[in-house]
Design brief:
globular, 336 residues, Dihydrodipicolinate Reductase, domain 2, alpha/beta, homotetramer, 6-stranded parallel β-sheet
Chain lengths: 336, 336, 336, 336
């Protein structure tokens, strides 16, 4: 049995992590923390957990958390997360960090996109990126894993194999993503107020979304090329799900069959990547840890379409998958 | 007073056309036709029209329609529409055709994309495309106007000025569109069944949507260049609205300011195009005849974002705008 | 031409009032106020108004407002509204108050349900309730009109005629209402955060919603009986629309036909009440000033179903209707 | 290991049953049938099942099904279901029937509400109603169990204990239910076409919904009184979830506390009934087998509010719960 603590337990990714862990025969949730909710019962913050998890929120120090858990899921906001996680690791527990703090390769890029100094810069570039389909081995032994961003996973899964195989150019890749509103978190604001975002679609953070350097970096790592994407996220009136459409230039003659075969071979043994021939919809993957992905050749340009549940494979499912790898459980435990 | 008949009155574009015309002080709806609904009152098909329009559906011949109306709005399906409209024009009434039948330039392209022989091929290439922002003069005197497709309007409005000014390359333009479900029409099918498309996003007709050659043609006409777009439509769980994101390559050095200024100048006197600095959402334009459009420069690539109400500026509002131009009314009548 | 000022212009009811007034040939919007938005252009708060209304928000005193407008639409919160409106009336302008401040009959009931002392108690009981279908004459000459609540209108329209005709018992009337989220206003909170209220239905304020005494009072006034309702509002994942289902006991033998005939006769000359035989849906009335209403007899109990757009007939459309009556314009102006 | 066959596997309840059974360590899905989908792979009908269930649809006879399965989940339409199920039982397999065929007590009531002769009338009144909270013992040994309707479960759970305790009158009980669209099944029709039912609420089948006699019968069985409800279902623009609000008359003096205590005691040992003090929302129960229920006293009338996931506790979760009871597995297996 592995003891798990969840930091920042009042949000959506924490809720999903809890639901998944409740199905995990080898995981025991031993602490849930929050800095704002006092000593409230978890069910008063997440009514859906009543009768499923009998635990109270606590405001704990890193050493206390490390004393109570073997593995810590940090759903804290960036910057706050790195500070807390560094202390937890030092105190001896292993960490899966849902924030973006350890996803980039160096402190300068981090400072540029996140607009503050990294509190634990030494670990940047050395912390494995928690996408097992690319970095399974490094994840297995790591004290700390950077759980991937939801958009990046949806973009990297289709792009990495095609880049690695040299089928597409690493520059001028368009990544056009459409996300449900839960990706914006649980703090009410005008843009996520129901009558504002319902029955509407809009782009946001065009050209400056923080997942841009993350997609660049991981695609570059996976392919050995210097990848740069033009990333545009859009807000869609639905709870969960991300669909990402990418557009890239083939390096030479390529067929649709070749694109699909390359994806299939790359993910042949992966339990959570489904390379499909039809055009997938986010609903096919909701509440699952799957990424559905396909490719098309349109007027000489490569188009990929991929989708996933932003709260599962885009966050908490990926975390549980990493947890399984880190603690030696079958990778699909609690995720099937 | 101008007498208007509406063909194929049981669908969504017909309903919106009726609502707009009811506000038009110079338009009188004298006939509404349907081949399936027998002699039903319009309110039995569209309950929202009860007490607003007291008229019954009829199954009329072209000559009868022409005898009853000065202007005919055809909401018939393609092919059927051209056949009927040709006869109506011959019988002396003017026509605004909502179908795609007269939007392309030649019979071969039509046959290739619509998979049947055009029933009135002689008018192809001679019928004005009903986007007044580009073809106002031709529309004014035309016996028949090809009302634009919803996706094409959303793509042409941002692209035409930038192409015409030589700011962007005419090839490899990505047009990524997101549309509400009313664009799929009123006939129930599995893909538009609520529990299938709600809470889901998917792409459809990738690489083979029929609006592709229409966008190509009008952008080419507007710019004098041979334009080719990679067009991907997506279905979004909302009633109405289209947001289109385009990605293109600048021809040379260009600034965001230059892009916005070019759009502003092009549409300076246009009552229904709003060039905005913020990122617009479809909700800003719903129930209006506006297109909201902006531009960004992202990593050396031109990104435009535009939105409109697919049933208004994307269909029935455009038709009323054309109607106003054709019959000499102030262009914004019933649309303000 | 009548000059209109709108107080509290950043919310949804103000936005709808503005849109309706823009279509009114005899109304001119001369001031829009807000205490929080500084001197912002109205389009920066409501992007949909760009190019439609060129005016800036101001923070004005009552006397200033009265100097600039003949009629003031107050969309201020309750208590604040009465205080401001009393001063505006004193300064010589007429007022349509969207808040609940003048809807109840006495200061004690007000204090009990709204939990503070009424700032202008003398006008309680003397201010006409702005439901023209019941109080048209009093509205015509009033300096101040209490614009009805959205839920109350949906309940009073079906109940008042049946109560007045003595067909149903005035006690134990169940009013079960379902409302879209715009009824909760524009201030973000957790309950109206998209991922919380989307894909969910819940009841709220059971047994203590402030519209309860308003429904009681107006139904009592309309029927001469002491009416008491059990009112339960529910939040529905949609932007706008209210559907209300009432359950009451017939006083004696009654048929469904008699119920429908009573409603039809009562509303015979009313332009905005549609007594229908089918079961209406809120979508039939969205963006209109109509109430659709029907009745059924189920196992000896009277069931009525009524629906309206909470922002139009439930707020701003009713206000424009009252405005037309107060200033001598045809009642349907800007509402057809 | 228990072998399970699923009849009528192309619909939503079948899909949910499959998903739950895939998590059941003791259940093996050995056959899935469909009369329309030929020999298609289950994933071509339900894309979300790709890589989770590798099986093809078949068109099997009752004896074939009974030869392949110990337990048969019938998701066939009513009438067709009874005919098939009777033959399956005869051939030696046990059956959980999702249709309404065995829920009523006698053939006359069935004929009156379902408008045709019951094909297996002898079993009416003898087949246990699959609500374990009321009929656990009968379910355990039954060859055939009538899986409850979604609306009835939502109404019976709050009403049965209050009726059994004699706290409320058995007559004039109002049951006002709000349901997501998946309850209408997977066959596309105009009323469930997205642009028709999205952004709208409507009542349907008022006074003649077939779940009415089912609620009557089970509440009567549970309380020993002759219960009669006025039942009104409403269609809500969301995928899944039912919230039911009931209104009834207390038999004497009663407090809110007494109501809640009565519910709590009745369901004290039930793993899937959560008696709560707050007002629950359907989202709290989505994807779970819980019913959340509370009670209020409003102006001397008893109001209960209950909610559940119509596809889980309202259908497939209940079926798995019954399966567990019938085959001796812990009742919460695959449902926790």
């Amino acid at each position: 049995m592995t003891r798990v603590a969840i930091l920042g337990a009042s949000g959506y990714t924490a809720l999903e992590a809890i639901k998944l862990l409740l199905r995990h025969p080898q995981a025991e949730i031993t602490a849930v923390t929050s800095r704002q909710e006092g000593n409230a019962h978890i069910a008063s913050v997440h009514p859906s957990l009543a009768r499923r998890l009998d635990i109270r929120l606590e405001n704990l120090e890193p050493a206390q958390v490390a004393g109570r858990a073997d593995c810590v899921f940090s759903c804290l906001p960036h910057a706050a997360s790195a500070e807390f996680c560094a202390a937890v690791v030092k105190a001896g527990a292993r960490v899966i960090d849902f924030s973006a703090d350890y996803r980039l390769g160096d402190a300068d890029t981090y400072a540029q996109w996140y607009e503050h100094k990294h509190p634990d810069a030494d670990r940047l570039g050395k912390t494995p990126y928690g996408l097992p389909e690319l970095f399974r081995e490094q994840i297995a032994d790591a004290p700390l894993v950077a759980n991937p961003g939801c958009y990046p996973t949806s973009a990297i899964v289709p792009l990495a194999p095609l880049l690695a195989a040299g089928l597409i150019e690493p520059r001028d890749i368009v990544v056009d993503s459409k996300s449900g509103v839960s990706g914006a978190g649980r703090t009410p604001k005008l843009t996520t107020h129901f009558p504002e975002c319902n029955e509407s679609v809009s782009a946001y953070n065009v050209g400056r979304h923080r997942h841009t350097p993350e997609i660049d970096r991981i695609c570059s790592l996976a392919s050995g090329k210097s990848v740069e994407v033009i990333f545009t996220p859009h807000l869609i009136p639905m709870d969960r799900g991300i669909l990402t459409t990418t557009y890239s230039k083939p390096t030479g003659d390529v067929t649709e069959q070749k694109l699909l075969d390359t994806l299939r071979e790359f993910y042949e043994d992966e339990p959570f990547i489904r390379v499909v021939e039809h055009l997938p919809g986010t609903k096919d993957t909701v509440d699952t840890n799957f990424v559905d992905v396909t490719a098309r050749l349109v007027r000489g340009r490569v188009v990929t379409i991929s989708c996933l549940d932003n709260l599962i494979k885009g966050a908490s499912g990926a975390a549980v998958q990493n947890f399984n790898i880190m603690f030696g459980y079958p990778e699909t435990t609690a995720l099937a």
